[in-house]
Amino acid sequence: MSAAAISPDLFEAARLGDPKAIARLLQTAQPDIRRYARATCRSSADAEDAAQETLWILFRHVGTIRSLLALSAWLFSVVRRECLRLARKAGLAPAIDESEAEAVLLARREADLRIDVAAAFEALPSHYRDVALMRDVKEMTIDEIAEALDVTRQTVKARLHRARALMREYLTR
């Protein structure tokens, strides 16, 4: 997506919840989302569904995106994930099991893997990213994370599980 088409002021206003800015952001991002979905999905119907779902996810989560620079990578990861989900739903893409996922990751060079892991963290919605960073990078306990975020242990566990699943999916594509 062309980040140049989205001004920092528009992005910040949308991130802070301005309805007009959100509508303008969606309108500006839509052509690039659709173009990427058409290039990524297996059919034009799936591309349309993936684009619409991506716009809906952007609408719901625009406030969680940290920076304009992260927006493009985040949107493209959402589109890829939606195309893959639709292909799996249609039985066109097999689910990757744990051993295959591990083999894919081990085949990468360490420097490339570091970059990919950083991108995977950046692509996570902030509420998942925060929990994953606290647990997997800062090595905080579940109780410490729950206290720091003022949520329950169950919420921390659920977010951590979802964050790891999203990262695994991102890294094994």
TrEMBL record:
Entry annotated with the keyword Methyltransferase: no
Keywords per UniProt: Sigma factor, Transcription, Transcription regulation
All copies of domain RNA polymerase sigma factor 70 region 4 type, residue ranges: 117-166
Source organism superkingdom: Bacteria
Domain RNA polymerase sigma-70 region positions: 27-90
Keyword Plastid carried by entry: no
Pfam families according to UniProt: Sigma70_r2, Sigma70_r4_2
Assigned protein family: Belongs to the sigma-70 factor family. ECF subfamily.
Protein name: Sigma-70 family RNA polymerase sigma factor
Lineage: Bacteria, Pseudomonadati, Pseudomonadota, Alphaproteobacteria, Hyphomicrobiales
